[in-house]
Design a protein that fits this description.
The chain has 163 residues and is mainly alpha-helical. The protein is 65% helix and 0% strand. Helix 1 packs across helix 3, helix 2 crosses helix 3 and helix 3 runs parallel beside helix 7.
Length: 163
């Protein structure tokens, strides 16, 4: 029980932010609670670095909710998505280009740029190999750059991400 409490205290805000960027505000608290119910039930399965595992549970929880409820919008319609601010003033052109990407492209970019995960950790969330995550990330950046009109327009490269 102590381990669960420590995980909850350390990662609740990150999971909450993750959900807020992907789900309607009316569902966020319930979805976060569902993530931590799974965590408590499967505490023996939680790895030493629990955040990527929690994000993986959050992705599945949100996918289940979308299947259950047809009125749960996909990410581009979420107000937090359009409000993405790559810099202090925000960039409406970037928000439009980002929204035009596929769900898979947006997710790998979110995991790396917004959630601050390394590509190895993003691979754990997406349940793919680190090599596949690296390829997905590179392709998503290229597609976003093309939508912006320049491949150099978007180059998030948080710590731990090497290309």
């Amino acid at each position: 029980m102590q381990r669960f409490e420590r995980i909850y205290e350390e990662h609740r805000d990150a999971v909450l932010a993750y959900m807020r960027r992907r789900a309607p505000e009316s569902l966020v608290d319930d979805l976060v609670a569902d993530v931590f119910v799974v965590c408590l039930r499967r505490i023996e399965d939680v790895p030493r670095d629990p955040l990527p595992w929690l994000y993986g549970v959050a992705r599945k929880t949100l996918a289940n909710e979308r299947r259950k409820r047809r009125d749960v919008p996909l990410a581009p319609e979420i107000s937090h998505e359009a409000a993405y601010e790559p810099g202090p003033a925000g960039d409406p052109k970037l928000a439009v280009a980002f929204a035009a990407l596929s769900d898979a492209d947006r997710e790998i970019l979110r995991l790396v740029a917004w959630e601050g995960l390394s590509l190895r950790a993003a691979a754990r969330v997406l349940e793919c190999s680190p090599v596949a995550a690296r390829v997905r990330y590179h392709r998503a950046k290229s597609r976003l750059g093309a939508k912006l009109g320049s491949a150099a327009s978007f180059r998030p490269n948080p710590k731990g991400v090497t290309e």
